Amino acid sequence: MTAPAILPERGLADRLTAFFWRHPKTFLALLLTPPLLWLGVVYLGSLFTLLLQSFYSIDEFSGMVKPEFTLKTYAELLRPSNFDVILRTLLMSAAVTLGCAVLAFPIAYYAARFARGRWKAVFYLGIMLPLWSSYLVKVYAWKLILAKEGIITWASEATHTTAILNAVLALPVIGGNSLSTSYIGMFLVFVYVWIPYMILPMQAALERVPTSMLEASQDLGASRSQTFRTVILPLALPGVIAGSIFTFSLTMGDYIIPQIVGNSANFIGMAVYQLQGTAGNIPLAAAFSMVPIVIMLIYLSLAKRAGAFDAL
Amino acid sequence: MTAAVEFQSVSRQFGTGPGAVRAVDAVDLTIAEGSFFAMLGPSGSGKTTCLRLISGFEQPSSGTIRIFGQDVSTIPPNRRNVNTVFQDYALFPHMNVRDNVAYGLRVKGMGRAQRHAKAEEMLALVQLPDYGDRKPGQLSGGQRQRVALARALVNEPRVLLLDEPLGALDLKLREAMQDELKALQQRLGITFVFVTHDQHEALSMADSLAVFNQGRIAQIGTPAEIYDRPRTRFVADFVGSSNVLPPAVTQAMGGPARWASLRPEHTRLAATGPLSGTVTALRYLGAATRVVMKTGDTEIAALVPAGHPLPEPGHSTAIAFDPKDLHVMEDE
Amino acid sequence: MPSERASLGLKIAAIGGLLFLHLPILLIFLYAFTTEERTYAFPPPGLTTEWFGVAWRRPDIWEALWLSLKVASVATLLAMILGTLVSAAMSRTSFFGREQISLLIILPIALPGVITGISLRSAFGVMDIPFSTWTIILGHATFCIVIVYNNAVARFRRLSVGVLEASADLGANAFQTFWHVLLPNLGTALLAGGMLAFALSFDEVIVTTFTAGQQATLPIWMLEELIRPRQRPVTNVVAMIVFAATFLPILAAYYLTRTGSETAGAGK
């Protein structure tokens, strides 16, 4: 007896299978509806509300939000005190990005080209764990390090280098009473917290440089430093740009670090936080938050042109 | 005899609008029960899409497909008693070999002891007894192929589909597997439908074959029919090392002004003949030597059996043949 | 490389860099044992374990821990469901709007957290939604989706399409294929994604400050202690808990996906 060519349908599961098979688009829509509904309503909806709010203004007498379209709130961003905040944030973001790139390079370079076997795993975990481990704990650790009575002061006393530390702290603008209340301290914490975001894409870009290409450069008579300058650095650049997207964006939006370390100078993130909280000026907070969005959109489109997304 | 698989002007179109591609274009096809059927063609010719239409992973844009007489337009793959040996075998990486083979029985509700016994039986059939506990990752390419075969056959399918099953194997293994597959098919009596781009494989294994070109079937027939009487220039070119003669040359040799094919083994060298030219290359093949002669713009090869005198390159020679061996093609 | 060995300088710089990434955390542990509760004096004048007892008896810490666990668990569960659905849809089929959807998924972590926070805050304000545990969860699940998605989509790509087709070919219906083939192959990636999402949610502070109102998750509790310190070593004890609660799932996620070509956590 031969088996039938078509097997019988067994229950609801088979019927649903047949339905999805005949209507693959319905199946796709069924998969996509819950997440898209969530992201569309919760996230995009919120972003849209934010955009809308930025075109409202606050009534100076009652302190209430006036739901009428105006560009007045955006104009307020250009007031010197507010514009300073934006400028300061951008400068800090640029400095942090640069600092991360310089410090990350040796780690990424070593991990990509020399670490083998066990060391490869050590480097991988060694970079990934700080990336994921608690942000707040990391910031807190640096508050301990930078405190006036903390480990750095102790170390400089122990090594008789207090004079150097004091000289650094005496620098105009970036110096301060102690490291934990200076721009230098803030810069250090930012670099520490965001550097894994720079190392990983940099390492990925460097790993893609074929060894044969370096040998070819060597073969053509380039010295080690020439090879480095003319071959390795240009090829690592997309990775640096990719990493800089993170370090720049994260620094620009952060408001915890400037609150805990530094001289209480205002940053965009802090301004947004304070304006929506105590001041209750949501329109201005919304307008402030449009700044990082616009800057990041420009940054992303430039980075895309530079081919940085291939390094992600 | 009933037809195992029947296509009635089946088309499969991918995409819409001006960018649409007709992977399968109004194909009519009948595969007899119990036959070993090959679909032969270059990549992108629509042969694999046809196979996937039978298994149900593609659905026709128009036309009807019948399996043993039954229209399958509403039947999903899991209800077709048709099994496939995939090109990359697609073994389940997380199951051992026994569970892989028993999978089809498991999802149909057969108990563990019974399905394991059947799986072992099938593994013995494909000469892999004692391999049940291994993971697919621990097997060689040839062994994986046998597991894939056992996994399909254990379900006692009415049609077995094989998608380039020998493509990933090395030459020696491939030849051994060709013989084995052929023997297996004859023993089980199951209809085998076999996709390949290798004309030798198709000609040596199949009872009948379809040659695909650009989504259409260029010719269907037995290997001998296709080899000896190609219907179009494409078939002659693709199927064998035949001489394809343009209309002018055919006419000069006493035929009509049409394309024609002439097998090298049906020719002999002569002092004078209907076709003369200059020898351009000699290739020693062991039992014979292939002599290539150029006449006008056309290159023609002749086979000279070992022991016969050979011309020197650059010398002129002529080719003689039996006029009945000159095959005039129906279409261009 | 011209020579297959790194120069000594590079080696020192690389290993120094790794130490730079890890040593500060150890300081947190040390200060949890200090007898000095008002300043961060180094070296600690004495060592004690009394702060663990003090922390244990503090009801506000327990409350914050409980809230954090609740938020992280629910947000992770939601993110796992939504992330898996979207990765299943995105893994193979190409359809209109695919690029836009992938951008939409990544946006919540591509834009600074403060943007997500203020957006949600203003939306809650406009719609008169009072702050609750659910407002926190809403925010967390949103940025956790991408974590699960990244892990799942990488595994989907590695899983050959043929395997799912083979299952259907052998007679399995969609549910049997899901249960017998898809889930066993996807399982560890989903678990890893879930653990990373949990770690991220448990630790999150930036978005949370905008969506929590008067409630305190453990990170918010810590943040308040950082701005207005009371018993400093108790904060260190809590910091150790937070660190462990993020560190362990991350390590587990790494080991779950280590054998695969993709490794969890390569993109946060």
Report on the structure:
The complex is a heterotrimer of chains A (312), B (332) and C (268). Chain A has 312 residues and is an all-alpha fold. Chain A has helices spanning 11-22, 24-54, 72-77, 80-113, 118-132, 135-146, 151-158, 162-169, 183-207, 211-219, 224-253, 257-260, 268-276, 282-305, and strands at residues 57-58, 65-66. Chain A starts with 10 loop residues before the first helix and ends in a 7-residue tail after the last helix. Chain B has 332 residues and is α+β, with helices and mostly antiparallel strands. Chain B is globular, with a radius of gyration of 24 Å. The two termini of chain B are 34 Å apart. The mean pLDDT of chain B is 89. Chain C has 268 residues and is mainly α. Chain C contains eleven helices and no strands. In chain C, helix 7 packs antiparallel against helix 8 and helix 8 packs antiparallel against helix 11. Chain C is globular, with a radius of gyration of 22 Å. Mean pLDDT of chain C is 83; it is low at 260-264. The chains are: A mainly alpha (312), B alpha+beta (332), C mainly alpha (268). Chains in contact: A-B, A-C, B-C. Chains A and C meet through helix 1, helix 2, helix 4, helix 5 and helix 6 of A and helix 1, helix 3, helix 4, helix 5 and helix 6 of C.
